């Protein structure tokens, strides 16, 4: 040790101090891991940036100094980064004779909750069979305002998600409902429900799924961040979906919402608009 120190021009004390700092740092990083694992028990596939945002105040409370880049490197070292999962099954049948409506979102500025709802259907599997989850999302706040799980994609089942969204509305201002050109959304049952509640229909042009990108994005978040375990039955899956949507709405921050949660933005802005309207 003495020979090596003389060779490199450093003191033995500096080596011991460096080892001591490394031990202290590893103890801090163990605490970081504990905090990460605790958060991941709630949201198992939450991304690194959102995870850092949620834990930043915990790091400060525990006297841990770690930047976002260092946090990313530590998760990579510990193999705690989330790998993207991709899968796709077509759930839209748009080659039908029913009337299709124009796309009203091309030049619209969405500035309040309940100005635009987007809807989509995605598949979710249990050990029993393949199920279909219908979602209705508020564009401004990214909040899931209606959902329904069923064993088929019939219009009678899909419209139940819309009914939930309508029931939970905070105001009666003008509202647009945007979807793909699927058979269920063009059906008389669905369109009657929109007309009954004075909601204006809007649909994608042709077969471009990117014109309903937000709905597709919400599907992906639910499936790849929350519904990651295969349930035994539809009953168990329904319970998991309910818990997942509540967690998504109330706890998951969004980059597009300046790291606020959908429920926070929806409630706060709805109250402001409703007060102003009255």
Keywords:
278 residues; 10 helices
Structural class: alpha/beta
- Unreliable runs: none
Strand content: 5-15%
Q: Give Rg in angstroms.
A: 24 Å
Give the % helix. Answer: 40-55%
Shape: elongated
* Mean pLDDT rating: 85
In words, what does this structure look like?
- The chain has 278 residues and is of the alpha/beta class.
- Helix content is 49%, strand content 13%.
- It is built from 10 helices and 5 strands, in the order H-H-H-H-E-E-E-H-E-H-H-E-H-H-H.
- The chain has helices at 2-8, 12-42, 48-61, 68-77, 155-167, 183-186, 188-196, 213-226, 234-251, 262-277, and strands at 116-125, 130-138, 144-150, 175-179, 199-203.
- It has a 5-stranded mixed β-sheet, sandwiched between helices.
- It starts with a helix and ends with a helix.
- The mean pLDDT is 85.
Fold topology:
Blueprint: H1 2-8, H2 12-42, H3 48-61, H4 68-77, E1 116-125, E2 130-138, E3 144-150, H5 155-167, E4 175-179, H6 183-186, H7 188-196, E5 199-203, H8 213-226, H9 234-251, H10 262-277
Parallel strand pairs: 1-4, 4-5
Antiparallel strand pairs: 1-2, 2-3
Helix pairs in contact: 2-3
